[in-house]
Write a structure and sequence with these properties.
The protein has one domain (26-210, 279-315): TIM Barrel (Alpha-Beta Barrel). Helices cover 36% and strands 11% of the residues. It is built from 11 helices and 10 strands. Strands 2-3-4-5-6-9 form a 6-stranded parallel sheet, with helices on one face. The chain has a two-stranded parallel ribbon with strand order 1-10. The model is unreliable at 1-12, 207-240, 246-253 and 283-294 (pLDDT under 50).
Length: 316
């Protein structure tokens, strides 16, 4: 299990066990992403707890390799006191931040896995200078890192989304290592065209819930069809997975006060195909069942809980 250290400490290089095997299908060689993230928001920046320790983290990353997935996704950091997440995180202004994040990225790179880092933090702002600083500090982990600009941006946030993408390009990040989430507005389509992203970057969609621009010419009417189904396009994780196991095939959007029906496999395939054919070169197949479907288990529990899902993703 590795040597124990005090909560809040970071392992030294000598104490980190080296991997016994590396990912046989890394994204930078296959162009394929199979993403599993065990923590709710950011295992990359999360402060250690007695049950989630850097002394055991290598075992979690080894399990990703063994089970056949090749990537995880995390926010760069998380706002303090988020009501959905009782955990605590290192933030940009903490002197420990970069040391902790880079130590964990070292584990990713050693195993030839891929880390998807959402540059914009969860529920807190980031300045242009901070975004540039973060990208410059982490781009040395290429080809084992993908930068996502923003998480679930709304149409009114598209300008911010674009500025982060422009910063990524200015810093020399290859388009194949840039991920943008689908925003249902004409400005997003303009960005894809004008920054030469179509067919070259990664595109993801966690959900589609706005009717603001369903008739936008960029969507060609397809988005209107998807939205009329009331689709949630993403992973079957956490509470939603529990609902589905009980035959309740919907996702409750509390913010909008709506129950959006889950897509069946055929509809999800159609949505994914449309995103690929119209927008990007890849699609994020994301799951995060480990912490989201349990009451914050130990590291070993996280590894055990997610094994069936990871192995299914690996062959799916």
């Amino acid at each position: 299990m590795g040597e124990s250290i005090r909560v809040g400490e970071t392992l030294t290089d000598e104490l980190i066990p080296k991997p016994t095997q590396v990912c046989p299908r890394p994204y930078h060689k296959t162009g394929e992403l199979r993403v599993y993230s065990a923590t709710i928001l950011s295992g990359l920046a999360m402060k250690e707890t007695p049950d989630w320790s850097d002394s055991l983290l290598h075992e979690y990353y080894d399990s990703l390799v063994i089970d056949g997935v090749n990537a995880e996704r995390n926010f760069s950091t998380v706002a303090p006191c988020d009501p959905l997440d009782p955990l605590d995180y290192w933030r940009f202004y903490d002197p420990q931040y970069l040391g902790v994040v880079k130590k964990r990225l070292d584990l990713i790179k050693e195993r030839d896995l891929t880390e998807i880092v959402c540059v914009h933090p969860y529920r807190m702002g980031i300045s242009d200078d901070q975004a540039r600083w973060l990208i410059r500090e982490l781009k040395g982990y290429l080809p084992n890192i993908i930068f996502e600009a923003m998480n679930e941006p709304y149409p009114h946030e598209q300008d911010r989304n674009r500025r982060i993408v422009e910063t990524l390009l200015a810093e020399g990040i290859p388009r194949a290592h840039i991920q943008v989430q689908y925003v249902e507005c004409g400005a997003w389509g303009d960005m894809m065209e004008e920054l030469d992203l179509k067919g070259k970057c990664l595109v993801s969609s966690h959900w589609m819930g706005s009717m603001e621009t369903v008739n936008d010419i960029f969507s060609g009417g397809t988005a209107q069809t998807i939205l009329s189904w009331g689709m949630f396009c993403g992973s079957n994780d956490g509470p939603d997975k529990l609902l589905k196991s009980k035959g309740l095939n919907f996702w409750h959007n509390a913010q909008a006060g709506l129950d959006n029906r889950r897509p069946d496999n055929g509809q999800l395939s159609d949505i994914t195909g449309w995103l690929l054919s119209h927008n990007g070169a890849g699609y994020e197949m994301l799951s995060a069942s480990g912490y989201q479907s349990s009451a914050f288990p130990s590291m070993n529990d996280v590894i055990a809980v997610g094994k069936a899902e990871r192995t299914a993703m690996a062959v799916g």
